[in-house]
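User: For a reading group we're discussing how well predicted structures match intuition. Take Thiol-disulfide isomerase or thioredoxin. Before you show the prediction, I'll give you the sequence so everyone sees exactly what went in.
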Amino acid sequence: MSTDVSTSQQNRRARVRAPEPSGRAWLNTGGTTPRLAERRGKFVLLDFWAFCCVNCLHVIDELRPLEREFAEELVTIGVHSPKFEHEADPDALAAAVERYGVDHPVLDDPELATWRDYAVKAWPTLVLIDPEGYVVHQAAGEGHVEALRRILGELVPEHERRGTLHRGAEPRVEAPEPETTLRFPTKVLGLEGGTLLVADSSRHSLVEFAADGETPLRRIGTGRRGDADGEAEFASFSEPGGMALLPERVAARVGYDVVVADTVNHLLRGLRLADGAVVTVAGTGAQWRDEPDSGAASRTALTSPWDVTWWEPAGGVVIAMAGNHTLGLFDPVAESITRFAGTTVEGLRDGPATEAFFAQPSGLAVAGAGEQERLWFVDAETSALRWVEPAADAFEVHTAIGKGLFDFGHSDGPASDALLQHPLGVAVLPDGTVAICDTYNGAVRRYEPATGEVSTLATGVAEPSGATTSEGELVVAASTAHRLERPVPPGVTARLIEGGSQRVNRPATEISPGEVELTVVFDPPPGQKLDERYGPSTRLEISSSPEDLLVEGAGVGTELSRRLVLAEGIEHGVLHVVAQAASCDDDSEVEHPACRLTRQDWGVPVRLDSGGSERLPLVMGGLDEQ
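Assistant: Thanks. Here is the predicted 3D structure of Thiol-disulfide isomerase or thioredoxin, as structure tokens, for the group to look at:
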């Protein structure tokens, strides 16, 4: 791992020509087909993303200031590399580009041709190309903007001196926004009196509807991105998500009735229903990286809280913390945040709540009462329905439907065989069965806890993302239809669909059974060095699915390379790799140098083959030069 070689020296040593991106179509280009060859003289940043991936959405937001700062020198191109079948639908991608405010060119690459050309192994991945068309930096994960800023700060003057830099802002292609009351609603909450509160994510506000779900009564929020507290017409949100109604005894003490997951602000907000006043109740506004995630609510960072619900056995509001694959717990009275479940490792593993693996938990619902009360949740990236229940003095996590990070589909029957596709919402029906917003299948599914059977209640629902019951009926936020729907009329009979299973078309990495050398590549940004003032500056954690895939090499260590021994006789599996590195400004005269922690987790699908590689490099930041 190099710490004393300048970026420009590394670039001249590597000199890898960037392949021309290729795919099915382009968005945000006005019908033209951009080519790297036409952008000689500019830096080009390729952002490999998938709209299912919350970490990819973080990167889109992180890049906005960098794009403004280097508007004359840098062109960003999104390369959409789908994980799920639904993401390969061009209309779904177009909706996602609008939903998340992506205004740079986007390549639709459903066959992952460009992904393979650039040897990408993780969502998200950033690749920086210099004005002469050479790859000069690659980074997986999020939190790399400062490193990119430093690299550009060093390379822009160099290319200016050499005459290879040509400044000039790229034109933006803007599409008019259609006139609809809602724009990409995500969640819906039933209120006393029968009205419905809806999170209107792309309009950055909340809308209360009459019981018919069509007549708007009031809008809470300005409709513009922001984090302002105050009265309903002055408060602001950024892509709000789930909402939880507090018990009356709790609301009376804290002075607000509803907790709102203000997703992109990384905050929880309190809403007083009487007048629509909004107050921030948890989060710092900064995204959690790897700092403590328990403590005073106002001083504890959150990361993309996607949904919230009050759960009595936990004594507070459970938070689906999609951004780091955990469940958090907010105590409104004590004004505290704690981690309730999960380890931050992305995957599917049951057991004690503190040891379980989750994968972008996105929807929550409570069923039962007393000791029989369950917390149901959907794990989007493992296409799973799961639950938490009290067990002795702790909590246990169980899986009802779901097989892992790369298996999905639409299939009913026994839960052990049933398949979902990236579900985002869940609700408990009056008869105790569980309704699932099977988002990427465009369906509402039902799980019967007593029998373990799965069936389909409705199809043709446009990305159902959240649901509630109102007067015995299921009300669903049909996100890409921009409205509330009641897709399951009273008395409807569930049906069984014998759909096929699907797997992610991302190519598996072929490696050899037996000994394999795994290396995480990380070069500190220019002007920084690894921070070893207080001990080892790096950390590497490795596990696998199935667990017996790894004979040796699992666990936590401080080196970014490790010898693994992979089991014979297992054809496919997933290596879960979490790496982090701490770096600080390389200036011995500064008493308090600027420091940052770089962290990335990979779920690497592998295929074991005797002819496979005995080396597995993963680039967290820098270039793999072997």
